[in-house]
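Q: I'm teaching a short session on how sequence maps to structure, and I want students to see two examples side by side rather than one. Could you give me a first protein with its sequence written out and its structure tokens following it? Keep the formatting plain so it prints cleanly on a handout.
A: Of course. Example one:
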Amino acid sequence: MIAGHKMRYASIRTLRALAILTVVLGHLALVEVKFGQGATVLPAFLIRGLGGIDLFFIISGLMMVITSRGKFHSGKRALSFIYNRLVRIYPLYWIYSFAALAAFLIHPAWWVTNAPENWRDLLVSFLLLPSRRLPLLNVAWMLIHLIYFYFIFALFLWLLKEERLPAGLTLWACWCWPVKPIFVSAAAPAQLLTCCCIPTPWSLLPDVF
């Protein structure tokens, strides 16, 4: 029985790795189009690999449910859950963000769609707060959604009994589905609009700053 569970988890992790790989290849294809000056090596269909982001979110949600069995209806465990997730994201993200900020200060022309206009844009970007602007490190838009996902799930861990999780997730899905995307902007390239148009309740809120 234990061996069977390990095999299933290994299969899920393999699928998640493939989803990440397709996203990386998709971004490489976009970078090549942007900076290749017309000469491309990677086939254009790799851009469709950005759809692996959806699969990654599905797998992440599945793993959260599996690893949280027996931990529901507990404020302490909800806090532990959100703390463990945030410390896995922010330190490494800040390292890359400072590197991106240094590159921006050296060569601002590299940033076209998400160049920060003031210190508030930088603060929102570094804290991964919801905004109608892409963060300085534009691929971090996914982390904004992921953190939002974590906080909602932590709320479920705190308030719901385990058997009521399906009902909670269903209500959340009904709330999110009709809401307009947050990142739609005339300045954003079509490729980013394709991967950023994930409906969230944030679009009902004003910008943080």
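Q: Perfect. Now a second example for contrast.
A: Example two:
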Amino acid sequence: MKKILVSLTLFVVLVIPGSLVFAQSAKTTPAPTPAPTPSKTTTPVLAPAPTWENYIPNEAKKVSGVDVASKRIINILLLVAGAVAVIYLIIGGYQYMTAGGNADTSSSARSTILNALIGLVIIFSAYAIVAFVLKKFIP
């Protein structure tokens, strides 16, 4: 049982995040444009250096750091709880498939599946409540 739990955990931690990475398309370089001829009347104007604020959407600039951090922490905790519930659902299904007609093992597997499903319902409900509350109190 420990080997199954460890292998499923390693699968979730190592394989699934890698599948969420999307490759970028090959960049094509545009044809070079001829350099403008400098004239004596123009002076070069340097653009201001980009800062990290240029990359933040306008909605995120209105929210303070504590609000953003609390949203992220809650979302991460709910994601981890959901992943654990799905792992237990898979473990219960595996136990049920390998029960081989044994009444004790199949009833234990059924209770594991039922508990995992109840956990998923609780997690989805908690996510809905947290999303509602955060939307009301944090703009």
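Q: What should students look for in example two?
A: Point them to this: The mean pLDDT is 76. Also worth mentioning: DSSP finds four helices and no strands in the chain.
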